[in-house]
Predict the structure of SET domain-containing protein.
Amino acid sequence: MRDRGYYTIGEVIISQSPFVAVPNVYEESPESKCEWCFSSSNIKACSACHAVWYCSTTCQNFPTTDTDNSKLVEALGSHMSDVDQKQLVNYTQMAALVNAILQWPASEINMKDIAENFSKLSCNSHTIIDSQLLAIGTGLYPVISLTNHSCVPNSVLLFEGRLAVIRAMEHMPKDTEVLTSYIDTAGSTVTRQKALKEKYFFTCSCPRCIKLGQPDDIRETAILEGYRCKDSCCDGFLLCGSDNKGFVCQKCGLVLSNKELSTITNELKCISDKASVSLSSGRKSEASVAYKRIEKLQLKLYHPFSISIMRTRETLLKISMELMDFKGAHSYCISVIQIYERVYPKCHPLLGLHYYLCGQIEMLMGEKKTTVESLKKAYNIFRITHGTKTPFTMELKTKLDEARAMASLGRMKIKS
Ligand SMILES: C[S@@+](CC[C@H](N)C(=O)[O-])C[C@H]1O[C@@H](n2cnc3c(N)ncnc32)[C@H](O)[C@@H]1O
Protein backbone atom coordinates (compact mmCIF):
# COMPACT_ATOMS: atom_id res chain seq x y z
CA MET A 1 0.00 0.00 0.00
CA ARG A 2 1.26 3.52 -0.82
CA ASP A 3 2.56 5.46 2.18
CA ARG A 4 0.06 8.29 2.71
CA GLY A 5 2.62 10.46 4.52
CA TYR A 6 0.29 11.08 7.47
CA TYR A 7 -1.38 9.19 10.30
CA THR A 8 -5.15 9.13 10.45
CA ILE A 9 -6.96 9.49 13.79
CA GLY A 10 -6.74 6.17 15.68
CA GLU A 11 -4.02 4.73 13.40
CA VAL A 12 -1.29 2.68 15.08
CA ILE A 13 2.00 4.62 14.95
CA ILE A 14 4.08 1.96 16.66
CA SER A 15 3.59 -1.17 18.72
CA GLN A 16 6.30 -2.96 20.68
CA SER A 17 6.75 -5.92 23.01
CA PRO A 18 8.63 -5.20 26.24
CA PHE A 19 12.36 -5.75 26.61
CA VAL A 20 11.45 -6.82 30.13
CA ALA A 21 8.14 -6.80 32.06
CA VAL A 22 6.81 -7.91 35.44
CA PRO A 23 3.22 -8.31 36.66
CA ASN A 24 1.98 -6.29 39.63
CA VAL A 25 1.22 -8.09 42.85
CA TYR A 26 -0.88 -6.13 45.33
CA GLU A 27 -0.92 -6.74 49.07
CA GLU A 28 -4.74 -6.59 49.11
CA SER A 29 -5.04 -9.16 46.27
CA PRO A 30 -1.84 -11.20 46.48
CA GLU A 31 -2.96 -13.88 43.99
CA SER A 32 -0.12 -14.54 41.59
CA LYS A 33 -0.10 -13.79 37.89
CA CYS A 34 1.61 -15.44 34.93
CA GLU A 35 5.05 -13.89 34.67
CA TRP A 36 4.75 -13.72 30.87
CA CYS A 37 1.13 -12.88 29.91
CA PHE A 38 -0.13 -11.54 33.32
CA SER A 39 -3.12 -13.92 33.29
CA SER A 40 -4.42 -15.06 36.72
CA SER A 41 -6.12 -18.24 35.47
CA ASN A 42 -4.65 -21.77 35.47
CA ILE A 43 -1.35 -20.61 36.92
CA LYS A 44 1.26 -22.90 38.48
CA ALA A 45 4.41 -22.03 40.40
CA CYS A 46 7.72 -22.61 38.60
CA SER A 47 8.94 -26.03 39.84
CA ALA A 48 12.56 -24.86 39.88
CA CYS A 49 12.45 -21.54 41.79
CA HIS A 50 8.89 -21.57 43.27
CA ALA A 51 9.05 -17.78 43.13
CA VAL A 52 7.32 -17.04 39.82
CA TRP A 53 4.14 -18.39 38.21
CA TYR A 54 3.13 -19.39 34.67
CA CYS A 55 -0.20 -20.25 33.01
CA SER A 56 1.30 -22.56 30.36
CA THR A 57 4.55 -24.05 29.14
CA THR A 58 4.45 -21.61 26.21
CA CYS A 59 4.61 -18.70 28.66
CA GLN A 60 7.22 -20.49 30.79
CA ASN A 61 9.50 -20.74 27.75
CA PHE A 62 9.35 -16.93 27.29
CA PRO A 63 8.54 -16.60 23.56
CA THR A 64 11.47 -14.60 22.19
CA THR A 65 11.40 -11.79 19.66
CA ASP A 66 13.84 -11.52 16.74
CA THR A 67 14.88 -7.99 17.62
CA ASP A 68 17.69 -7.52 20.10
CA ASN A 69 17.04 -4.18 21.77
CA SER A 70 19.85 -4.37 24.34
CA LYS A 71 21.84 -1.59 22.62
CA LEU A 72 18.79 0.69 22.77
CA VAL A 73 18.33 -0.12 26.46
CA GLU A 74 21.98 0.68 27.14
CA ALA A 75 21.54 4.06 25.45
CA LEU A 76 18.49 5.11 27.53
CA GLY A 77 19.08 8.11 29.79
CA SER A 78 19.32 7.51 33.56
CA HIS A 79 19.44 11.11 34.91
CA MET A 80 21.84 9.83 37.61
CA SER A 81 23.30 13.30 38.13
CA ASP A 82 19.79 14.73 38.80
CA VAL A 83 18.74 12.09 41.34
CA ASP A 84 18.63 13.43 44.90
CA GLN A 85 20.62 11.96 47.80
CA LYS A 86 17.65 10.16 49.39
CA GLN A 87 16.74 8.42 46.13
CA LEU A 88 20.40 7.51 45.52
CA VAL A 89 20.46 5.78 48.91
CA ASN A 90 17.26 3.89 47.90
CA TYR A 91 18.80 2.78 44.62
CA THR A 92 21.99 1.67 46.38
CA GLN A 93 19.98 -0.36 48.91
CA MET A 94 17.99 -1.96 46.09
CA ALA A 95 21.27 -2.72 44.29
CA ALA A 96 22.56 -4.41 47.48
CA LEU A 97 19.39 -6.52 47.58
CA VAL A 98 19.85 -7.57 43.93
CA ASN A 99 23.42 -8.46 44.77
CA ALA A 100 22.29 -10.57 47.75
CA ILE A 101 19.66 -12.40 45.65
CA LEU A 102 21.81 -13.08 42.59
CA GLN A 103 24.95 -13.95 44.56
CA TRP A 104 27.18 -13.13 41.62
CA PRO A 105 30.93 -13.23 42.19
CA ALA A 106 32.22 -9.90 43.53
CA SER A 107 34.26 -9.35 40.34
CA GLU A 108 31.05 -9.30 38.24
CA ILE A 109 29.15 -6.91 40.47
CA ASN A 110 29.18 -3.19 39.92
CA MET A 111 26.83 -1.63 42.44
CA LYS A 112 26.94 1.73 40.67
CA ASP A 113 25.77 0.12 37.41
CA ILE A 114 22.89 -1.63 39.18
CA ALA A 115 21.83 1.59 40.90
CA GLU A 116 22.05 3.41 37.55
CA ASN A 117 19.79 0.77 35.97
CA PHE A 118 17.16 1.42 38.66
CA SER A 119 17.31 5.11 37.84
CA LYS A 120 17.03 4.30 34.11
CA LEU A 121 13.99 2.12 34.81
CA SER A 122 12.38 4.86 36.88
CA CYS A 123 12.34 7.44 34.07
CA ASN A 124 11.91 5.09 31.09
CA SER A 125 9.66 2.23 32.17
CA HIS A 126 5.89 2.23 31.68
CA THR A 127 3.04 1.10 33.89
CA ILE A 128 1.20 -1.55 31.88
CA ILE A 129 -2.56 -1.04 32.14
CA ASP A 130 -5.42 -3.22 30.96
CA SER A 131 -8.27 -2.03 28.72
CA GLN A 132 -10.12 -0.73 31.81
CA LEU A 133 -7.00 1.33 32.67
CA LEU A 134 -6.11 -0.74 35.74
CA ALA A 135 -2.38 -1.14 36.38
CA ILE A 136 -1.34 -4.76 35.82
CA GLY A 137 2.43 -4.54 35.55
CA THR A 138 5.54 -2.60 34.63
CA GLY A 139 7.55 -2.91 31.42
CA LEU A 140 10.51 -1.42 29.62
CA TYR A 141 9.84 -0.68 25.95
CA PRO A 142 13.10 0.64 24.40
CA VAL A 143 11.59 2.26 21.27
CA ILE A 144 8.37 3.46 22.92
CA SER A 145 10.67 5.03 25.57
CA LEU A 146 12.02 7.41 22.96
CA THR A 147 8.65 9.20 22.91
CA ASN A 148 8.67 12.58 24.62
CA HIS A 149 5.93 14.03 26.81
CA SER A 150 3.35 16.75 26.21
CA CYS A 151 0.44 17.87 28.42
CA VAL A 152 -1.42 18.32 25.09
CA PRO A 153 -0.38 15.03 23.47
CA ASN A 154 -1.08 14.14 19.84
CA SER A 155 -0.88 10.39 20.55
CA VAL A 156 -1.98 7.91 23.17
CA LEU A 157 -0.17 4.91 24.62
CA LEU A 158 -2.22 1.90 25.65
CA PHE A 159 -1.53 -1.81 26.00
CA GLU A 160 -2.89 -4.99 24.44
CA GLY A 161 -1.76 -7.52 27.03
CA ARG A 162 1.98 -6.79 27.28
CA LEU A 163 2.17 -5.19 23.84
CA ALA A 164 2.50 -1.37 24.01
CA VAL A 165 0.60 0.43 21.24
CA ILE A 166 0.78 4.13 20.37
CA ARG A 167 -2.11 5.49 18.30
CA ALA A 168 -2.53 8.93 16.71
CA MET A 169 -5.18 11.08 18.43
CA GLU A 170 -5.18 13.57 15.58
CA HIS A 171 -4.58 13.64 11.86
CA MET A 172 -0.81 14.18 11.71
CA PRO A 173 1.95 14.19 9.08
CA LYS A 174 4.40 11.34 9.67
CA ASP A 175 7.27 13.73 10.37
CA THR A 176 5.38 15.29 13.33
CA GLU A 177 7.00 14.53 16.69
CA VAL A 178 4.98 11.81 18.42
CA LEU A 179 4.06 13.06 21.90
CA THR A 180 2.27 11.10 24.62
CA SER A 181 1.42 12.10 28.16
CA TYR A 182 3.56 10.70 31.01
CA ILE A 183 1.28 11.96 33.79
CA ASP A 184 -2.34 12.66 34.70
CA THR A 185 -2.90 15.92 32.84
CA ALA A 186 -5.93 16.99 34.92
CA GLY A 187 -3.86 19.04 37.39
CA SER A 188 -2.83 22.69 37.24
CA THR A 189 0.34 23.74 35.40
CA VAL A 190 2.29 23.94 38.67
CA THR A 191 1.15 20.44 39.70
CA ARG A 192 1.97 18.92 36.30
CA GLN A 193 5.37 20.61 36.16
CA LYS A 194 6.16 19.38 39.68
CA ALA A 195 5.26 15.77 38.81
CA LEU A 196 7.36 15.87 35.62
CA LYS A 197 10.35 17.44 37.36
CA GLU A 198 10.29 14.96 40.25
CA LYS A 199 10.09 11.79 38.18
CA TYR A 200 11.48 12.77 34.75
CA PHE A 201 13.74 15.75 35.54
CA PHE A 202 12.55 18.19 32.90
CA THR A 203 10.47 21.33 32.58
CA CYS A 204 7.66 20.88 30.09
CA SER A 205 7.22 23.65 27.51
CA CYS A 206 4.05 22.38 25.84
CA PRO A 207 1.34 24.86 24.75
CA ARG A 208 -0.38 24.49 28.17
CA CYS A 209 2.79 24.82 30.25
CA ILE A 210 4.11 27.95 28.54
CA LYS A 211 1.04 29.77 29.88
CA LEU A 212 2.31 29.36 33.47
CA GLY A 213 1.60 32.53 35.47
CA GLN A 214 -0.57 34.16 32.79
CA PRO A 215 -4.03 35.39 33.92
CA ASP A 216 -5.85 32.41 32.29
CA ASP A 217 -3.48 29.95 33.93
CA ILE A 218 -3.89 31.61 37.38
CA ARG A 219 -7.68 31.41 37.01
CA GLU A 220 -7.54 27.77 35.88
CA THR A 221 -5.22 26.85 38.78
CA ALA A 222 -7.59 28.51 41.24
CA ILE A 223 -10.55 26.59 39.81
CA LEU A 224 -8.72 23.25 39.81
CA GLU A 225 -6.89 23.49 43.12
CA GLY A 226 -7.76 26.77 44.87
CA TYR A 227 -10.71 27.97 46.97
CA ARG A 228 -14.12 29.23 45.82
CA CYS A 229 -16.08 32.26 47.02
CA LYS A 230 -17.91 31.59 50.28
CA ASP A 231 -21.01 33.23 48.77
CA SER A 232 -22.61 30.19 47.10
CA CYS A 233 -24.22 32.44 44.46
CA CYS A 234 -20.85 33.85 43.34
CA ASP A 235 -18.65 31.74 41.03
CA GLY A 236 -15.50 33.78 41.70
CA PHE A 237 -12.17 32.25 42.63
CA LEU A 238 -9.96 33.33 45.53
CA LEU A 239 -6.39 34.51 45.72
CA CYS A 240 -4.31 35.09 48.84
CA GLY A 241 -4.94 38.59 50.23
CA SER A 242 -2.01 41.03 50.41
CA ASP A 243 -2.28 41.16 54.24
CA ASN A 244 -2.04 37.34 54.49
CA LYS A 245 -5.15 37.30 56.69
CA GLY A 246 -7.20 35.26 54.24
CA PHE A 247 -8.26 34.75 50.65
CA VAL A 248 -10.09 37.35 48.58
CA CYS A 249 -12.76 36.60 45.95
CA GLN A 250 -11.54 38.05 42.66
CA LYS A 251 -15.14 38.68 41.56
CA CYS A 252 -17.02 40.13 44.56
CA GLY A 253 -14.18 40.92 47.00
CA LEU A 254 -15.57 38.77 49.86
CA VAL A 255 -12.83 37.51 52.18
CA LEU A 256 -12.51 33.93 53.44
CA SER A 257 -10.51 34.40 56.63
CA ASN A 258 -7.71 32.02 57.65
CA LYS A 259 -9.81 31.08 60.71
CA GLU A 260 -12.87 30.13 58.59
CA LEU A 261 -10.59 28.21 56.29
CA SER A 262 -8.92 26.22 59.05
CA THR A 263 -12.32 25.33 60.62
CA ILE A 264 -13.47 23.71 57.37
CA THR A 265 -10.12 22.09 56.56
CA ASN A 266 -9.83 20.61 60.06
CA GLU A 267 -13.34 19.17 59.81
CA LEU A 268 -12.51 17.83 56.35
CA LYS A 269 -9.32 16.19 57.58
CA CYS A 270 -11.13 14.55 60.48
CA ILE A 271 -13.92 13.08 58.27
CA SER A 272 -11.43 12.09 55.54
CA ASP A 273 -9.42 10.02 58.03
CA LYS A 274 -12.57 8.24 59.23
CA ALA A 275 -13.82 7.75 55.65
CA SER A 276 -10.65 6.09 54.44
CA VAL A 277 -10.61 3.75 57.47
CA SER A 278 -14.25 2.74 56.77
CA LEU A 279 -13.42 2.17 53.11
CA SER A 280 -10.27 0.14 53.71
CA SER A 281 -12.03 -2.05 56.28
CA GLY A 282 -14.87 -2.78 53.85
CA ARG A 283 -17.61 -0.86 55.75
CA LYS A 284 -19.04 0.52 52.52
CA SER A 285 -22.34 2.02 53.76
CA GLU A 286 -20.45 3.89 56.49
CA ALA A 287 -17.85 5.01 53.92
CA SER A 288 -20.60 6.21 51.60
CA VAL A 289 -22.10 8.43 54.35
CA ALA A 290 -18.64 9.81 55.22
CA TYR A 291 -17.67 10.58 51.61
CA LYS A 292 -21.02 12.33 51.06
CA ARG A 293 -20.18 14.59 54.04
CA ILE A 294 -16.77 15.24 52.53
CA GLU A 295 -18.37 16.18 49.21
CA LYS A 296 -20.71 18.61 51.00
CA LEU A 297 -17.83 20.28 52.87
CA GLN A 298 -15.64 20.41 49.77
CA LEU A 299 -18.43 22.16 47.87
CA LYS A 300 -18.19 24.97 50.47
CA LEU A 301 -14.47 25.31 49.90
CA TYR A 302 -13.67 24.32 46.34
CA HIS A 303 -14.97 25.08 42.89
CA PRO A 304 -17.41 22.39 41.60
CA PHE A 305 -14.89 21.54 38.85
CA SER A 306 -11.98 21.12 41.27
CA ILE A 307 -9.70 18.10 41.38
CA SER A 308 -10.62 17.44 45.05
CA ILE A 309 -14.34 17.18 44.26
CA MET A 310 -13.55 15.09 41.19
CA ARG A 311 -11.61 12.58 43.37
CA THR A 312 -14.36 12.42 46.02
CA ARG A 313 -17.02 11.77 43.37
CA GLU A 314 -14.86 9.08 41.76
CA THR A 315 -14.75 7.34 45.16
CA LEU A 316 -18.51 7.79 45.69
CA LEU A 317 -19.13 6.32 42.22
CA LYS A 318 -17.04 3.26 43.07
CA ILE A 319 -18.75 2.77 46.46
CA SER A 320 -22.24 3.20 44.94
CA MET A 321 -21.45 0.55 42.31
CA GLU A 322 -20.21 -1.83 45.00
CA LEU A 323 -23.37 -1.18 47.03
CA MET A 324 -25.41 -1.72 43.81
CA ASP A 325 -26.99 1.70 44.29
CA PHE A 326 -27.31 2.27 40.53
CA LYS A 327 -29.32 5.50 40.78
CA GLY A 328 -26.63 7.04 43.01
CA ALA A 329 -23.84 5.63 40.82
CA HIS A 330 -25.45 7.12 37.72
CA SER A 331 -25.63 10.57 39.23
CA TYR A 332 -21.95 10.42 40.36
CA CYS A 333 -20.91 9.06 36.98
CA ILE A 334 -22.60 12.01 35.23
CA SER A 335 -20.96 14.52 37.59
CA VAL A 336 -17.53 12.91 37.17
CA ILE A 337 -17.96 13.01 33.38
CA GLN A 338 -18.82 16.73 33.56
CA ILE A 339 -15.50 17.40 35.29
CA TYR A 340 -13.55 15.07 32.97
CA GLU A 341 -15.03 16.85 29.95
CA ARG A 342 -13.50 20.03 31.29
CA VAL A 343 -10.09 18.76 32.40
CA TYR A 344 -9.28 16.11 29.77
CA PRO A 345 -9.09 16.20 25.98
CA LYS A 346 -12.21 14.98 24.10
CA CYS A 347 -10.65 11.63 23.33
CA HIS A 348 -9.28 10.64 26.75
CA PRO A 349 -9.61 6.91 27.64
CA LEU A 350 -10.81 7.78 31.16
CA LEU A 351 -13.68 9.75 29.65
CA GLY A 352 -14.46 6.80 27.36
CA LEU A 353 -14.47 4.43 30.33
CA HIS A 354 -16.95 6.61 32.24
CA TYR A 355 -19.30 6.97 29.23
CA TYR A 356 -19.16 3.17 28.97
CA LEU A 357 -19.97 2.76 32.67
CA CYS A 358 -22.74 5.35 32.38
CA GLY A 359 -24.22 3.45 29.41
CA GLN A 360 -24.08 0.14 31.31
CA ILE A 361 -25.85 1.66 34.34
CA GLU A 362 -28.48 3.22 32.06
CA MET A 363 -28.99 -0.19 30.44
CA LEU A 364 -29.59 -1.70 33.91
CA MET A 365 -32.01 1.14 34.70
CA GLY A 366 -33.90 0.51 31.42
CA GLU A 367 -33.03 3.96 30.01
CA LYS A 368 -32.85 2.81 26.38
CA LYS A 369 -32.29 6.14 24.66
CA THR A 370 -29.56 7.48 26.94
CA THR A 371 -27.87 4.03 26.92
CA VAL A 372 -27.35 4.36 23.16
CA GLU A 373 -26.05 7.91 23.50
CA SER A 374 -23.56 7.03 26.27
CA LEU A 375 -22.30 3.83 24.61
CA LYS A 376 -21.92 5.71 21.30
CA LYS A 377 -19.77 8.37 23.01
CA ALA A 378 -17.66 5.62 24.62
CA TYR A 379 -17.25 3.82 21.29
CA ASN A 380 -16.19 7.01 19.49
CA ILE A 381 -13.34 7.39 21.99
CA PHE A 382 -12.27 3.74 22.22
CA ARG A 383 -12.14 3.22 18.46
CA ILE A 384 -9.37 5.84 18.53
CA THR A 385 -7.56 5.03 21.79
CA HIS A 386 -7.98 1.22 21.85
CA GLY A 387 -8.60 0.52 18.12
CA THR A 388 -11.66 -1.17 16.59
CA LYS A 389 -10.22 -4.68 16.57
CA THR A 390 -9.46 -5.18 20.28
CA PRO A 391 -11.79 -7.53 22.24
CA PHE A 392 -12.73 -4.65 24.58
CA THR A 393 -13.89 -2.32 21.79
CA MET A 394 -15.62 -5.18 19.96
CA GLU A 395 -17.53 -6.09 23.14
CA LEU A 396 -18.60 -2.46 23.51
CA LYS A 397 -19.71 -2.37 19.85
CA THR A 398 -21.85 -5.48 20.41
CA LYS A 399 -23.46 -3.81 23.46
CA LEU A 400 -24.06 -0.63 21.44
CA ASP A 401 -25.71 -2.63 18.62
CA GLU A 402 -27.89 -4.45 21.18
CA ALA A 403 -28.85 -1.14 22.83
CA ARG A 404 -29.75 0.35 19.42
CA ALA A 405 -31.88 -2.69 18.60
CA MET A 406 -33.66 -2.45 21.99
CA ALA A 407 -34.27 1.27 21.53
CA SER A 408 -35.77 0.85 18.06
CA LEU A 409 -37.90 -2.06 19.32
CA GLY A 410 -39.18 0.26 22.07
CA ARG A 411 -40.03 2.92 19.47
CA MET A 412 -41.89 0.33 17.35
CA LYS A 413 -43.94 -0.77 20.39
CA ILE A 414 -44.90 2.84 21.19
CA LYS A 415 -46.05 3.40 17.55
CA SER A 416 -48.16 0.21 17.45
C1 LIG B 1 11.22 8.20 28.27
S1 LIG B 1 12.50 9.32 27.97
C2 LIG B 1 12.09 10.01 26.44
C3 LIG B 1 13.16 9.91 25.42
C4 LIG B 1 14.33 10.86 25.61
N1 LIG B 1 13.98 12.20 25.15
C5 LIG B 1 15.52 10.34 24.82
O1 LIG B 1 15.90 10.95 23.83
O2 LIG B 1 16.03 9.29 25.21
C6 LIG B 1 12.14 10.51 29.17
C7 LIG B 1 13.10 11.65 29.23
O3 LIG B 1 13.01 12.43 28.05
C8 LIG B 1 13.09 13.80 28.36
N2 LIG B 1 11.83 14.46 27.95
C9 LIG B 1 10.65 13.86 27.69
N3 LIG B 1 9.73 14.75 27.30
C10 LIG B 1 10.32 15.95 27.30
C11 LIG B 1 9.88 17.27 27.02
N4 LIG B 1 8.62 17.52 26.65
N5 LIG B 1 10.76 18.28 27.15
C12 LIG B 1 12.05 18.05 27.56
N6 LIG B 1 12.52 16.81 27.85
C13 LIG B 1 11.68 15.77 27.73
C14 LIG B 1 13.34 13.91 29.86
O4 LIG B 1 14.71 13.98 30.07
C15 LIG B 1 12.80 12.60 30.36
O5 LIG B 1 13.39 12.17 31.56
Observations:
- The radius of gyration is 25 Å.
- The mean pLDDT is 92.
- The longest strand covers residues 135-140.
